[in-house]
Amino acid sequence: EPIATPPEQSLWMIVFIDNFFIEPLQRNRALPGIHSFLDRTLGEGDRAMVVSHARVLKVRQPFTENLGAIHEAIDEIEDDTGFASARRRLQTDTLQDIDRSTLQRFVETLSGLPGRKALVYVTSGVPRNAGEEMFQTVAEKYGTSEAFSEISRHSSSRSFDAIGRQAAASRVTF
């Protein structure tokens, strides 16, 4: 009979698929790798949750130990449309505007659980500096360099750093 994993050693994982910042074709190419990763990573007593985000957060599978249900939830995401094509044309929202508070809430959720915790964020890229092209156009058109100083205020790297610090402080792998 297999030995049960003690609660302090079990894994709680959230797989967060960001349909807002991922191209559907890239996402669908990544899904088999996610399945493989989960098969290698999740063991007896480990739990995972699957969520997707495309302006609205959708819990695809609440925490479960049932690996089949986790795979099924991920497979359902393959049929979703994504917003990344439109996002690439606009490049106006940042992680700070879209996902920061959502990701922080998941880190907070995980922090209160026993054992090991991980948040897997699946995306094909978040604009590092939202609106950078617009600021460059303004600078070129009006001959001012002041627009460039605004770019750093819209950097997503600060948001990722803040989430990373919060996750580390909460003993959550991000």
Outline the structure in words.
Strand 2 and strand 3 form a beta hairpin. 48% of the residues lie in helices and 17% in strands. It has a four-stranded mixed β-sheet with strand order 3-2-1-4, sandwiched between helices. With 174 residues, the chain is α/β, with parallel strands linked by helices. Helix 1 packs antiparallel against helix 2 and helix 5 (100-111) packs parallel to helix 8 (156-169). The longest helix has 18 residues, at 24-41. The protein has helices spanning 24-41, 67-77, 84-90, 95-98, 100-111, 132-142, 146-151, 156-169; strands spanning 11-18, 47-53, 57-64, 116-122. It is globular and about 70 Å long. The two termini are 33 Å apart. Mean pLDDT is 78; it is low at 87-97.
**Low-confidence parts, pLDDT < 50 over ≥5 residues?**
87-97
End-to-end distance, in Å?
33 Å
Portion of residues in helices? Answer: 40-55%
Helix/strand order, N-terminal first:
EHEEHHHHEHHH
Number of strands: 4
| Largest sheet descriptor | 4 strands, mixed
Radius of gyration: 19 Å
Assembly state of the chains shown? single chain
Query: Shape, please?
Result: globular
